[in-house]
Amino acid sequence: CSLDSYFLYSCSGCKYLSRKSFTMCKIQPKAGKLGKESSSTLGTSATWAENLDLDAFSKDVIQLGKNLKANEGQDDVDHLYKIMFWGNCFSFLGFALAWMSPYWIVPSIILSIGVTSRWVMVGHHVTHGGYDSTAPSRFNRKTFALHTLWRRVADWMDVMRPDAWALEHNHLHHYKLNEVEDPDLVQRNFMFLRESELSLPLKYLYFAAVTIMWKYVYYAPNTFRVLRMHEMKRAGQPVKKETQEAVGTVSALIAGIPDVSLWDFWCRSIGPYIIWRFLLNPLPYLVLGMYMTPETPTWMFFNAMWNAVIAEVISNVHTFIIIVPNHAGDDMYRYDTHVDARSPEFFLRQVISSANYSAGNDVVDFLHGWLNYQIEHHCWPSLSMLSYQRAMPEMKRICKKHGVPYVQHSVFWRTKKTFDVAAGLASMPMFPEGVLKQHSS
């Protein structure tokens, strides 16, 4: 099996990596591994669901979201500028120190924080529309990092295309959370590891390897696959079933996914970022090296390049730890049915299938990439970062009032829970159909 079998149940013999079935892969799930047995225990572990007044709960959640949105203004924009300034400081300082030997690691760490902050705080919340009504037009989701390569470089340059990521994340993940169609469903995506006979130390090693490269082997190619499907549908072209059901890992692109060209992926998604990040960014140090040390003109350039590579690895690990555990663990529910957006059960699912981390001030939240408010964010995706700080205590109050579980742990504990699911040591319970019918009818 290939290493990019994260978000796959893949083996080298599979041409396509299907989310909908395991028939394309020789690896078959063993009884109970997907957590079907867990649904039968929900009555003893979650009796709150049987007594929940779902309509009343959802009305409170909807009203809180409206109040938060109505109170957004210049303070939220100023807060965005503040967080951008912090991220830019890390980027510029990291670049200023990038000539140093990568063995010092400090320049790489600083650079990585700048890369991470631009994605998970600025790009993430702007492309959700968190500042559409309050900030200048540059920070509108319909223009931010879109339409030209220059805007992508100036606003948010990453290995993923911003428009591709917005389609995959903002639509598929947010509105199909922990369903079969959710591209980020951890228990399914780590099925290879769950089913493997590897020893526990080797599973830890595999898990660690995935964290180092996950944006490159899964997130960038799979978001590009979603973008290509969107482009084809808009052009009135049929999208093949194999393309719809594939998980767009790098190995899948190499094997061949219909209408998703590996060359197109390079030219439009990953290629510009690699050239910009690892070649163009360090280029000033080549000029400086030719001036300062003409006998060895390239040493500063190569130090800057390797610092950028190491920073990318650190950023991959950082973002994996703060993103993936948000919806994974033996206390996060899965679903085999779909519900309408903004329906009462939709809001409930966002709460009981999301986990928050430590939160409450800008420093802590910055280090967590503002992904420590995942419950609030999934209920109201288009709020500002500052609104999520305001929302958390109110959301906790609503959940306590209605008896709905509100999960909040250390990010490291959530990462451990994610590994347990990925390795097959634990399973995410399936939420049973019908338990809420008497309250939502």
SSE map:
Layout: H1 42-45, H2 48-51, H3 54-70, H4 74-96, H5 106-127, H6 149-155, H7 162-175, H8 186-189, H9 191-195, H10 200-234, H11 241-245, H12 250-255, H13 262-280, H14 283-292, H15 299-323, H16 344-352, H17 362-367, H18 374-379, H19 385-402, H20 411-423, H21 437-440
Helix pairs in contact: 3-16, 3-19, 4-5, 5-15, 7-10, 10-15, 14-15
Description:
By secondary structure, the protein is mainly α. The chain has 21 helices and no strands. Helix 3 runs antiparallel to helix 19 (385-402), helix 5 (106-127) crosses helix 15 (299-323) and helix 10 (200-234) packs across helix 15 (299-323). The protein is globular and about 75 Å long.
How far is it from the N-terminal to the C-terminal residue, by CA?
46 Å
Class by alpha and beta content:
mainly alpha
What is the overall number of helices?
21
What are the low-pLDDT stretches, counting only 5+ consecutive residues below 50?
Answer: 1-44
Alpha-carbon Rg, integer: 22 Å
Using DSSP, what is the number of strands? 0
- Could you spell the SSE succession in H and E letters? HHHHHHHHHHHHHHHHHHHHH
Give the overall shape, derived from the CA principal axes. globular
The portion of residues assigned to helices is 55-70%
Strand content range: under 5%
Mean pLDDT: 88
